[in-house]
Design brief:
The protein has about 45 residues and is mainly α. It has a domain at about 15-40. About 75% of the residues lie in helices and about 0% in strands. It has one helix and no strands. It has one helix spanning about 10-40. The protein is rod-shaped.
Length: about 45
């Protein structure tokens, strides 16, 4: 990591937090959709 770039660590942490947030949001949406699908169709498998 370049020491002459000011705030590169903070930028990296912010980008990582944003990526994690959207990843968690996508996972939550998928789980919510799967639960609704299971509840609607009764999980007949």
């Amino acid at each position: 990591m370049d020491p002459d770039r000011g705030g590169s660590l903070q930028e990296f942490a912010a980008a990582l937090n944003k990526a994690n947030f959207y990843e968690l949001l996508a996972v939550a949406m998928v789980l919510n959709f799967r639960n609704r699908y299971k509840n609607r169709y009764g999980g007949k498998k």
